[in-house]
Design a protein that fits this description.
Number of domains: 1
Distance between the termini: 12 Å
Helix content: over 70%
């Protein structure tokens, strides 16, 4: 039961708060960080990214893409710091593998939880700003796609 609840929370965060970020593309077809078209395409993972696909189908106008780019750029520095903090915590945990110290692990876990909380808040704010760029029709379409994806995730959870 608790696992099912956690899965739903995770799905909600990913789909409703972070989803708009997946489509952040600029006018030349690259991603917002200047990467290749399709974002994760260079890792061979584009086909496994349903969020990117559903947002691509919204067909943003050039003006909307420009607005999304501005939103992403305004939050980029803070997200980079938070990502670095998460990576640092992960590295600290790896260093403790050979000599387990419960107090040290607990301290790192608290730091990671705090950083994750900040990331979720930051990404929720970005998602809200990006969503405000969408037309009512695009919002409705996105909501339908998210609901469909949530149903699929629920079915997959039942199969476990």
């Amino acid at each position: 039961m608790q696992k099912h609840y956690f899965t739903k929370i995770t799905c909600f965060v990913v789909l409703t708060l972070i989803a708009p970020l997946s489509f952040a593309k600029n006018h030349d077809g690259g991603d917002m960080n200047g990467g290749p078209k399709g974002g994760m395409q260079h890792h061979g993972m584009e086909q496994h990214d349903p969020i990117r696909k559903m947002l691509h189908e919204l067909d943003l106008t050039e003006a909307q893409k420009s607005q999304v780019k501005e939103i992403m750029q305004s939050h980029k520095a803070q997200l980079k710091i938070l990502k670095g903090q998460m990576q640092q915590g992960h590295m600290q945990l790896l260093q403790l593998v050979g000599h387990y110290d419960q107090d040290a692990v607990a301290k790192i876990a608290e730091q990671q939880a705090s950083t994750l909380k900040q990331m979720i808040i930051q990404k929720a704010a970005i998602g809200h700003e990006v969503r405000n760029v969408l037309t009512d029709e695009q919002k409705q379409s996105l909501d339908k796609k998210i609901a469909k994806h949530q149903k699929i995730m629920a079915i997959m959870e039942e199969d476990e």
